[in-house]
Design a protein that fits this description.
Elements lengths: L2 H10 L13 E3 L5 H12 L5 E5 L5 H6 L5 E6 L2 H14 L4 E5 L5 H5 L6 E7 L12 E12 L7 H4 L13 H10 L2 E15 L2 H10 L16 H15 E2 L2 E15 L11
Parallel strand pairs: 2-3, 2-5, 3-4, 5-6
Antiparallel strand pairs: 1-7, 6-9, 7-9, 8-9
Protein name: Methyltransferase domain-containing protein
Pfam family, one: Methyltransf_25
Organism: Ktedonobacter robiniae
């Protein structure tokens, strides 16, 4: 970590892949670690002849790690502070094959600044999904790696805090992900689902984590609704009461990791490609 990382870690924490004072005291993956799997896949596909797109690059940790391995790497993010950290990290590391773009995956102006039919590898680590506007930026047979934060992540935290919809999030279901991306011309290669557990020392530690990680209590159907003690303390105490174990306060996590490629998709066997 560089000097500028310390402040970012305390402010953003795990939201941008930092470890901070409020990070879990214990994480148990039981031999299957989604973060390690994404790293393995990126190392497999990030070869010297490829141009790469990091969708939601954050503070640039992964982008700068891959830069020495590839021809050129672009980073897109809608947070100016984190993009500035990416540029500073690249400068400190002496990396010159990096281009950063400010904007979201649905920002027409930002996407227009990306070159067409250029990227042989694109990835998103818990970031935005790939949109119809982004697909033409990929070359044919380009590989796509995406890590999803799935519908059971944090369950039943959102339910106890009143932030969870009464039905599962079908937009993160396997069949819908495959169908949606197939409609964009992204053909599935593999998919894996991971459950793991995080533990916090006590209720105070868990409360500090929720204050930092406001996204844990977010719901795309609602306006931003971060933790507020006056409103949420009773829910916090109830959650801690029912989820305290000998290892600490338990939080269930879920991730999905997909690999896809840009290729013609035959929706019916008789369809000509």
């Amino acid at each position: 970590m560089f000097d500028f990382d310390a402040e970012l870690a305390e402010h953003y924490g795990a939201f941008t892949s930092y470890t901070s004072a409020v990070s879990p005291a214990l994480v148990e993956y039981y031999g299957e670690n989604p973060t390690a799997e994404v790293d393995r896949l990126l190392d497999l596909y990030a070869t010297s002849e490829r141009t790469v797109l990091d969708l939601g690059c954050g503070a640039g940790q992964t982008l700068c790690r891959l830069a020495p391995k590839v021809k050129h790497i672009w980073g897109l993010d809608q947070n100016q502070e984190l993009l500035a950290a990416t540029r500073l990290r690249a400068e400190r590391l002496g990396l010159e094959n990096i281009t950063t773009v400010y904007g979201s995956s649905y920002d027409a102006e930002a996407i227009a600044s990306l070159p067409d039919a250029t990227f042989e590898l694109a990835f998103s680590r818990r970031g935005p999904n790939f949109s119809e506007q982004l697909v033409p930026k990929l070359r044919q047979e380009a590989m796509v790696v995406q890590e999803f934060v799935s519908g059971f992540d944090g369950y039943p935290l959102g339910e106890i805090f009143g932030r969870r919809h009464y039905t599962p999030y079908y937009y993160t279901d396997h069949e819908l992900i495959i169908s949606t991306y197939a409609g964009l011309g992204l053909f599935p290669v593999s998919s894996k689902v991971y459950f793991y557990e995080e533990y916090f020392r006590d209720g105070e530690h868990f409360e500090a984590y929720l204050k930092q990680m406001w996204a844990m209590l977010s719901n795309w159907r609602l306006p931003p609704c971060p933790y507020e003690a006056a409103r949420d303390r009773a829910a916090l105490e109830l959650y801690v009461r029912y989820n305290t174990t000998p290892k600490g306060v338990r939080l269930l996590r879920q991730r999905k990791v997909y690999v896809l490629r840009r290729a013609p998709v035959a929706f019916y066997p008789c369809q000509k490609l």
